[in-house]
């Protein structure tokens, strides 16, 4: 790794800019950081993808929210006049934590430095795709075609998932299989023509959401972090954002969630001991749902001793709670859907689905 300057002009945003523009910029910029400046062009804060997601989880974002309400108001920086007084080791220590370091002259950004790595597009993170389910809710389709092989936008969804991770620089793939495992292997080997490592683990009997992950982690002695995704998930989430969020905060277990709402079409009665207290007309409830995407350290899986081989997500979560292992949430604002039911699959096909 080398310390290099970046062309930071596109990474500067005025405090009066909208949150929507802020999100759009973070989506397209190579360097996923924005430096917030005031009218005098003085640095007053910074914003990353993680800052926005944390604001979403804390319900801090409203329609008229300002970027100053979610930005990091104490970004690290070095004064230009004192730059030469810092040793390379000191700057390296800062960059390992902050990744980007603005150099200021009279509080105005003169340059921005960061770690440059020629292999930064390729990472060691392991990706495990759960593709062993029977897809019973999609019968009769899945009696002939396994759920991961169903075509979504001209490709099978398992190939879509692999391509999405590959475009984000991921190269280490594991796929758990059971039902119609041969057909899924054939699909991947034929249509995913990329230079990547793919290893399969065929379950002799269903091992649950995390049973196969524990077997893979043990068999292949995984040491690097793991992203787990179900094979019926369709999303345009940039998985590097998930990876960065996980690593920056040094989480043990990160569960991706998405806000959903339910509108009750009736007046809901609140009562106490048989007496009416009030009626709430057509209330709307908001809640977070599990998206079937997780990131986890292999140590977390390995340190928990399960007495059974079939391990479901609830089993893992309950064991983590007992072991006092924190499970953090990663809110997804991007497009997300799973096609585990006929209604959703029919809607995807009817709408000539493109996300």
How many domains in all? Answer: 2
Q: Compute the gyration radius: what is it?
A: 23 Å
Structural class: alpha/beta
SS summary, helix count: 11
Strand arrangement in the largest pleated sheet: 12-11-8-13-18-15-19
> How does CATH name the architecture of the largest domain?
Alpha-Beta Complex
> Uncertain regions: pLDDT < 50 for 5+ in a row?
none
Mean pLDDT: 87
Considering DSSP H and I runs of 4 or more, what fraction of the residues is helical? 25-40%
- Shape estimate: globular
Distance between the termini: 36 Å
What's the name of the CATH homologous superfamily of the largest domain? Spore Coat Polysaccharide Biosynthesis Protein SpsA, Chain A
Roughly what fraction of the amino acids lie in strands? Answer: 25-35%
Brief descriptors of the model:
355 residues; alpha/beta; CBS-domain; Spore Coat Polysaccharide Biosynthesis Protein SpsA, Chain A; 7-stranded mixed beta sheet; 4-stranded mixed beta sheet; 11 helices; 20 strands
